[in-house]
Write a structure and sequence with these properties.
Layout (H helix, E strand, L loop, with lengths): L1 H60 L6 H21 L5 H17 L6 H32 L2
Helix pairs in contact: 1-2, 1-3, 1-4, 2-3, 3-4
Amino acid sequence: MKDYITDLLGKICIPLIIGYITYIIAKKQITSTGVTQFRQKWIDNLRDAISLYIAKAEMISMLDFDDDEKYFEHFKELSQMQYKIELMLNSSEKDHNEVIEYVGNIRDLIHDEEIHEDELDERLNELINGLTDVTKRVLKREWNIVKKGK
């Protein structure tokens, strides 16, 4: 009788334990895959937003302030991109705040009517280089997290 009960418990308990363990592992993998895919999409979107922002800033810097309609239309688009970038970032992370600061400084510089063209070009290149460098750090860190599957 004891052998029968032991055999019966073994036939019932072992599949239940294996099923439970399989469920936990599958749930973790599904969650991890979803987060990884979301993070990869975020990386791609941030890269696109920053590159478009830089291209738009460079284009606006070549426009004449006197062409109000054209200038302000492009400046409006630049501002929209700025806010999109800011909303994509986490203000509690230091390098994310650096990106936000560079983006704001670029917009302010382009909107400065008092600055001489040569100074504008030089200062804009410095800010763009700084923005590019800090963005690369952010993207690299996030990519390393994606590679680990977190």
